[in-house]
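Hi R.,

Here's the chain you asked about this morning:
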Amino acid sequence: MEGFTEVLNQTGIASMTLGQGGMALVCLGLLWLAIAKQFEPLLLLPIGFGGLLANVPGAGIAEADGFLGLLYGMGVSNGLFPLLIFVGVGALTDFGPLLAHPKTALLGAAAQFGIFATLLGALALTEQTGWVDFSLQDAAAIGIIGGADGPTAIFLASRLSPDLLGAIAVAAYSYMAMVPIIQPPIMRLLTSKREREIVMTQLRPVSRAERIGFPVVVFGLCFLLLPDATPLVGALMFGNLLSESGVTDRLAGAAKNELINVVTILLGLAVGSKLGADKFLQPETLGILVLGLGAFCIGTATGVLLAKAMNAVSRQPINPLIGAAGVSAVPMAARVVNKVGQDAVPTNLLLMHAMGPNVAGVLGSAVAAGVLLALVGS
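And the predicted structure, written out as tokens:
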């Protein structure tokens, strides 16, 4: 009986805490969203399963010398995995629509307003309520959720607020997945039916020289003006140059497929290591979810409002809906813009026009992360 009792005490059922049981349910919920609802399944599924592993009682999987802990130390704490993801994203990104309509870059910049508004909101929430305790670094990491760029959010959180990484990553990818739910009501509220019916002129062709020169010029400007953003921007531009140069098809193909797929698995599992009950089941997590939603809504709204202002002074018509695509979330946000536009006029094709601010949003979130690192990084 003593031996049986000892074995029983070593089982997961006997040693599982209430918090670990609760987190197991949360992680199963993430798996359900990924599989049944197809909400960002490429990341939410590995993150959810990584969270299950992190909450196995007594196994130490998320400890520094455990399976997930080793992955975290190998590629998240030093920022390697998000940067490799950005190489793949760069190879997959077509900056042609942005080059054909350069002023839409302003819409990508306007959508980043949500990041800095949420930073101030997190600090105000700490000061006014007292039920959360966000430092300036925490607030900056939370604000980046508004950029709707998962790798950027993970990169910045790993540098500024590692303890909040799990909640920030889950919020970022969850809201990215809910773009078709969150954005349309905001877009319709801020635009009239007449504005949604605006038909934009066809984009001009973009030369090969422009496509090749763009990543080089962008990297050069970042190098000279904002060195803190060069890791993210440089990885993005390197991947894009692999694709656009036309002489490294094998490398570009590897970046688009094998590299990004393998790193996505490792990144998701590593982020799951931060979903332990002691880190996730805190009042701060609820604050992060609320603030992240606010950041996303503010970014959408400011993009639409700037597009309205640009349309008022532009010689060529600009449909204000495309401003909503500035929050990044490539290409889902652009597809949502196209759908809302077609709801107003079935023949109105806004997809390529929305891709301009959409890819500008990717750059904008990377630059915003660099600004925050320069301002509040330790």
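The chain has one domain: 20-376.

Let me know if you need anything else.
M.
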